């Protein structure tokens, strides 16, 4: 194996690791956004007195 092939293989592996890390971080971010949206929807349902929406959001139907 020559030097440049090794360099290319290492760069490719680093790129794949970076991509995997970005996918993990994106998953975490999406989970945080989803949790925020649910909390926000619950707050709005409570503020507007919409019991039906609140019950659907908290699963107490």
> Termini, distance in Å?
65 Å
Largest sheet: none
Radius of gyration: 23 Å
Runs in which pLDDT lies below 50 for 5 or more consecutive residues are none
- Strand proportion, as a percent range, falls in under 5%
Name the quaternary structure: single chain
What is the β-strand count? 0
Number of helices: 2
Number of domains: 1
Structural class: mainly alpha
Quick check: average pLDDT?
Answer: 94
Helix content: over 70%
Characterise the protein shown here.
- The chain is mostly helical.
- 89% of the residues lie in helices and 0% in strands.
- The chain contains 2 helices and no strands.
- Helix 1 (3-48) packs antiparallel against helix 2.
- The mean pLDDT is 94.
Index terms:
about 90% helix, about 60 residues, rod-shaped, mainly alpha
Summarize the structure.
With 61 residues, the protein is mainly alpha-helical. It has helices at residues 3-48, 51-58.
Topology of helices and strands:
Blueprint: H1 3-48, H2 51-58
């Amino acid at each position: 194996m020559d030097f440049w092939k090794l360099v290319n293989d290492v760069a490719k592996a680093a790129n794949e690791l970076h991509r995997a890390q970005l996918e993990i971080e994106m998953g975490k971010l999406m989970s945080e956004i989803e949790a925020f949206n649910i909390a926000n929807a619950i707050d709005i349902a409570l503020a507007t007195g919409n019991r039906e929406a609140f019950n659907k959001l908290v699963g107490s139907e």
